[in-house]
Amino acid sequence: MKAVILPQHGGREALRFVSDFPTPSPGKGEILVRVKATGINYVDIVNRQGYPGIALPLPHILGGDIAGEVAALGEGVDGPKVGTRVVVYPLIGCGQCPQCLDGKPNICLNWKFIGLHLHGGYAEYALAPAANVLPISIPFEEAVTVPVAGLTAYHGLVNVGELKLGQIFFIWGGAGGLGTMAIQIAKHLGATVIATAGSEKKLESMKKLGADHVLNRFKDDIAGEVKKIAPFGVDLLLNYVGPQTFQTSFDMLKKGGTMLLCGIITGRETNFSIHQTYLRHLSIKGVYLGTKDEMQALLRLVEQGIIRPYAGVTLPLAEAAEGHRLVESGESIGKIALRVE
Ligand SMILES: NC(=O)c1ccc[n+]([C@@H]2O[C@H](COP(=O)([O-])OP(=O)(O)OC[C@H]3O[C@@H](n4cnc5c(N)ncnc54)[C@H](OP(=O)(O)O)[C@@H]3O)[C@@H](O)[C@H]2O)c1
Ligand SMILES: [Zn+2]
Fold first, then answer.
1. What pTM value is reported for the model?
2. What 8-state DSSP symbol labels residue 149?
3. Neighbours of 209 (CB within 10 A)
4. What does 238-291 look like in DSSP terms, one character per residue?
């Protein structure tokens, strides 16, 4: 099959397009998906370079967002039937720990992430457990905005941050794959949204998605502007940028407010005031993907047209390295997808 493989970790040049990678066969309980589109996520860049603490068998196939058609059913699987349009929930839990039994494989101790621990969607075919395969009625390139970026935004805002009607939500990088979903989910929940981006074009796109206040992180005094909009601070803030935006984020929180952490773009460690945290009743919470139920709930919102996936650029599979360049350069708006033909 055609695939973009990673024979060894490295820069964009490490990605290699091949036409003769062995096509996998579905094992017991698995489905073989004929991939039609796959998304590029920031984690693919980290994974390409070598994910800290996770040694992958190489060559590896990246890609946690998989949308396509059911191509074959493994032993013991009786549906969905061949040809059904589907999207894949990207996490596989151990199935035995208390979190898995509670339907939360994203908190499983021995979780596996398709595209990270297992071969992903940068290929003509991909395998997934039958339970992870969800039928869809939306275009493939829209569907790939849901499994990783969309799901994390949904899980973070709805169930971890418990964002509510009338609250103020702030996000750094609202024009990215995760940000474009987060803005819309926050508006759907009835919050006021303040979002930053690095160019005027991105600010425009965030306004169109419903952001109430948009700020240019290179030109505006972010903390000063937020103070004018929210004199008591923001209720919920999503920070995937990391240490560089941590202190400003911390200072912008309302008393009792929550900061969600879900990314490490500028580093993995930071310092913060324990004293201020308890004095101001602050919560700092980690967000890692989400559950299958949450993904289904988000898919329903997309199918109803309430959330509109922002499919920024779609490239042919062979141009995966260019897709990585777009993600790394920060030029892109919304999701970068790869079309698999
Ligand atoms: N924990 C999880 O489960 C999970 C799941 C999905 C994604 N993530 C993480 O979420 C992050 C975003 O993912 P994505 O797919 O949305 O990536 P993306 O589409 O590349 O968007 C990233 C955005 O970050 C902004 N940014 C970059 N550096 C910044 C800085 N120093 N200050 C403020 N903003 C900055 C950029 O916007 P401007 O340059 O326009 O400001 C860019 O639009 C990544 O770190 C990813 O690893 C985590
Ligand atoms: Zn488990």
1. 0.97
2. I
3. 25
4. EE-S-HHHHHHHHHHEEEEEEEEE---TT-S-----HHHHHHTT-EEEE-----
Architecture per CATH, 150-286? 3-Layer(aba) Sandwich (3.40)
Report the residue among 48, 172, 226, 246 best suited for mutation to probe ligand 1: largest number of ligand atoms under 8 A from its CB. 172
Query: Ligand 1 pocket: which residues have CB below 6 Å?
Result: 41-43, 148-149, 152, 172-173, 175-179, 196-198, 202, 217, 240-241, 244-245, 262-263, 265-266, 287-289, 327, 330
* Domain residue extents for the chain: 3-145+309-339, 150-286
Q: Which residue has the tokens 């109803």?
A: 304
State the 10-residue block means of pLDDT for the chain, 341 residues long.
Answer: 97 98 98 98 94 89 98 96 98 95 93 96 98 97 97 98 98 97 98 98 97 98 98 98 98 98 95 98 98 98 96 94 95 94 91
Say whether domain 3-145+309-339 belongs to CATH 3.90.180.10: yes
Q: What is the rounded distance in angstroms from the CA atom of residue 80 to the CA atom of residue 77?
A: 8
Quick one: tokens of 330? 């920060």
